[in-house]
Amino acid sequence: MTDKIDIQALLEESHINEVLDALDKNLVGLVPVKQRIREIAAYLLITKARLQLGIEAAKPSLHMCFTGNPGTGKTTVALKMAEMLHRLGYIRQNHVVSVTRDDLVGQYIGHTAPKTKEVIKKAMGGVLFIDEAYYLYKPENERDYGQESIEILLQTMENHRDDLVVILAGYQDRMGTFFKSNPGLSSRIAHHIDFPDYNEDELLEITKLMSDAMHYNLDANASKAMQEYIQRRKQQPHFANARSIRNALDRARLRQANRLFNDAIQNKKQATAADLSLITEADIRASRVFTNHNITDNKTG
Q1: Tens-digit pLDDT profile for residues 287-298
Q2: DSSP 3-state assignment of 297?
Q3: Of 82, 19, 104, 5, nearest to 51 (Cα)?
Q4: β strands within the chain, DSSP E
Q5: Are 1 and 48 in contact (CB under 8 A)?
Q6: What span, in angstroms and rounded, lies between the C-alpha atoms of 224 and 169?
Q7: Is the whole-model pTM more than 0.85?
Q8: pLDDT for 107-144, tens place per residue?
Q9: Which residues, including other chains, have CB under 8 Å from residue 198's CB and lie 6 or more apart?
């Protein structure tokens, strides 16, 4: 048996740099998250190297917790994490099963166990992503069946940790309370990653990336209006980071379509490819965000 291993060759063979590069390219900001993912990748690669050299070591625990506000990229990173784990050989399949409480917890006696086990069966060999995981635990309701689902998850995370990675996600403060109430879950989570909110410049960059992906352009005045939209929307309730930006663009596209439609019907105006792709300042400023400062709907455009 050789006493040396080429780490660089192992890295190239796994192709995980492609995953890490995609994270850097496709996700704006999130510098601490990207750094943490790189650290985990390095740890898992070195663990693999140790095993190949016959150094005895327990298989690393891979269960994780992602905390942060909505729209900060937790689901996207979970997908990339699954791809990375698969390329390194830590999971059999590159797939993520994303669920919430409703997918796991039943409404009557005898309903929760089969629901939870069915979800676990679908996720086996890959990653199970549980969003807003704290809703599984409702101590104020003695008849709630969430605790039964938690017990099944605990058993699975321990007995099948070689064949299933569980990622719990949600608001940081609520996840903290959840773990205090369920220490068995907390003890099985090896990696905690906090996702920060995006700043205004990052949100404007996200706007450009999203509009480019949809094959739309914002002219200079529209970009300025969008910057003001972001400043105002961040001050209103239920702001959801990139999710709110996507909702705003969807509504701007709706207004653009209505504007072009009315021009065609009322003015017999023909549209060019540039017209069909352009979002104007007016399409942005028609949002209620510029007229209503008490917005409560997180889908407000």
Answers
A1: 999 986 554 444
A2: coil
A3: 5
A4: 64-68, 96-99, 127-130, 165-170, 191-195, 217-218, 278-279
A5: no
A6: 34
A7: yes
A8: 888 889 999 999 999 999 999 999 999 999 887 776 78
A9: 28, 29, 72, 206, 241, 242
